[in-house]
Design goal:
By secondary structure, this protein is an alpha+beta fold. It folds into two domains: 257 residues, 2-Layer Sandwich (BirA Bifunctional Protein, domain 2), CATH 3.30.930.10; 194 residues, no CATH class. The protein has 14 helices and eleven strands. Strands 1, 2, 3, 4, 7, 8, 9, 10 and 11 form a nine-stranded mixed beta sheet that branches. Strands 5-6 form a two-stranded antiparallel sheet. A hairpin with a 2-residue loop joins strand 5 and strand 6.
């Protein structure tokens, strides 16, 4: 059995108590220095700005919440605010601000393939209970972006709810939001109205919704940064386009209604709720002048470390970069989730997510020919140092780091043994298929059907399948494979 060892003591230069997650006191706008674009400065500026506006700071909520038993906290929202208020009943007032880690398992397939998605990311949020003061909310949102964070207003676009139909209910356009943006001077050509799918928020099952009460809902408005025209897209595209030109980095939700499931009726809330959030890593992309969340100052050292250990020199186009990103993303997510009490890898719910993250990371290490026992301790040590920067030096932190590292390494070690056995069985099956490739099994339908069988029934991950086919000079069409996979999934229903 493999065994991992790690020195969890961060360098003394990183033991700085001034870099804690939540600033202790507000700073007036005139006293603030120009923001340096680091994630620490972004979260500090967000908190300080809303503190100046009279918002009270709440602590970060744990990633495990009873309303999401099958996954982890997915956003900064009402669930975290209510949890904090229940834990700290001395808080008074109706305005609160916090910084929340978020994890979205449903984005895993996007990781590494685009420039903006992370499975684990940080979301500072500001929350107001009471009547929706849309103009004030939007004014704060704009001031935060353009003055506090220093983002060029000429590069900003906005989407708002232009009306639509929700389960038989005709919803009017959010004219109040439109007018609020116009009053701030936003040009109408950069103010885009979208429908229910894009700009009308609905509470999802597993996000505080238990099925015994109506689902909360309401319009929202989003801020986008124009990264520049893409060569493979129309130069006149807008935020509704998925080409990657427009990076959404902030939104405000005006949760003013609830949807009664039985009768599909939308009912106004007695106590509406407003939230404004930003994505720290996406703001860092803008302020640091890079093109990807994997190129920021926080991500570059992790990607660089992976490249130091990489042995594979020739790989299919894009596979190395995608693999590096997945390893960095998944191990960082595991570090935070395990620190909050994520269970060991298993078959269902949170256990399955932990298992999936570990296996996906190990599969990519295999693609890059990185030796696990040498790599994991060094990489986790780098994560420890990043965490130390964020948390600062406080009593008990060293013991906490040691416990977290030991737990995560134990999870990885146990799952690695099981996973390698599965991979070997799958590789045996794939080798048999490749050996028979020249004996009549060369039509595309047969190729895709056989590969889906090897992935789903024999457990060999798709990147390892693609790599083996590439080495054997057997063509692989990812789009056609996806189409065949959808047919396979439909047959299971």
């Amino acid at each position: 059995m493999v065994s991992y060892q790690i020195d969890v003591l961060a360098p003394k230069t990183l033991l700085n108590s001034s870099s804690s997650l939540t600033p202790s006191s507000p700073t007036s706008l005139s006293q603030r220095r120009e923001i340096d674009g680091s994630t620490q400065s972004i979260r500090d500026r967000f908190i300080h700005y809303y503190q100046d506006q009279g918002f009270q700071t709440l602590p970060r909520a744990p990633m495990l919440h009873p309303s999401i038993p099958m996954s982890f906290v997915m956003s900064a929202g009402l669930v975290q605010v209510e949890l904090s208020l229940s834990r700290f009943p001395d808080y008074q007032g109706q305005q609160f601000v916090l910084v929340q880690d978020c994890f979205r398992h449903f984005d895993l397939d996007s990781i590494g393939r685009d420039e903006s998605h992370l499975s684990l990311f940080e979301m500072p949020g500001a929350f107001v209970f009471g009547p929706n003061a849309k103009a004030a909310t939007i004014r704060r949102m704009w001031t935060l972006a353009t003055q506090e964070l220093g983002i060029n207003p000429e590069r900003l676009w906005v989407s708002y709810f232009a009306g639509g139909n929700l389960e038989g209910n005709a919803l009017p356009a959010d004219e109040e939001t439109y007018e609020a943006w116009r009053e701030l001077g936003l040009a109408p050509e950069r103010l885009v109205g979208l429908g229910v799918e894009d700009n009308y928020w609905q509470q999802s099952r597993g996000l505080g919704f238990t099925g015994d009460h109506p689902r909360k809902c309401g319009p929202n408005t989003e801020l986008f940064y124009d990264l520049g025209a893409r060569p493979d897209c129309d130069a006149t595209c807008g935020p509704q386009c998925r080409c990657g030109r427009f990076l959404e980095f902030s939104n405000s939700l005006f949760i003013d209604s609830e949807l009664e499931e039985d009768h599909h009726e939308i009912i106004p809330l007695d106590n509406p709720f407003t939230e404004t959030v930003i994505g720290t890593e996406r703001v860092a992309v803008i302020l640091q002048g890079v093109s990807s969340v994997f190129e920021t100052a926080d991500s570059r050292p992790l990607i660089g470390l992976i490249r130091q250990y990489r042995q594979a020199r020739q790989l299919p186009e894009g596979m190395a970069e995608e693999s590096e990103r997945i390893i960095a993303d998944h191990l960082k997510a595991l570090w935070v989730l395990v620190g909050d009490g994520a269970p060991p890898p298993g078959k269902n719910g949170r256990e399955r997510i932990v298992k999936l993250l570990i296996r996906r990371a190990i599969a990519r290490l295999m693609v890059l020919e990185i030796e696990e026992t040498a790599f994991f301790p060094v990489f986790l040590s780098s994560l420890v140092q990043q965490w130390q920067k964020r948390q600062g030096s406080r009593e008990g932190q060293t013991a906490l780091r040691e416990s977290r590292v030991e737990t995560l390494l134990r999870y990885i070690e146990a799952e690695s043994v099981r996973f390698h056995k599965t991979v070997e069985r799958g590789h045996d099956k794939l080798r048999q298929f490749i050996a028979n490739w020249g004996e009549g099994l060369d039509d595309e339908t047969s190729l895709e059907a056989n590969l889906i069988d090897i992935e789903k029934n024999w457990g060999l991950p798709r990147p390892l399948i693609e790599l083996s086919l590439w080495k054997a000079n057997i063509p692989f069409n990812r789009q056609k494979y996806q189409e065949a996979l959808q047919i396979w999934k439909s047959q299971l229903r």
